[in-house]
Amino acid sequence: MSTVQRINFEPVSDILATQRRDFALDDPTLADPLNAVALVDGEYMVINSSYKIVRASAIGTPGDPALSTSFPLFAERGRYDVQALASRKMPIIFMGEFEVDTRIFDASAAIGSGAAISAAMQPLKVATVTIGSRNYSGLVGHGGSADSDPIVGRVTRLPANNGGKLRYMRAFNI
Question: Which of 31, 90, 127, 172 is most buried when burial is the number of CB atoms within 10 A of its CB?
Answer without folding.
Answer: 127
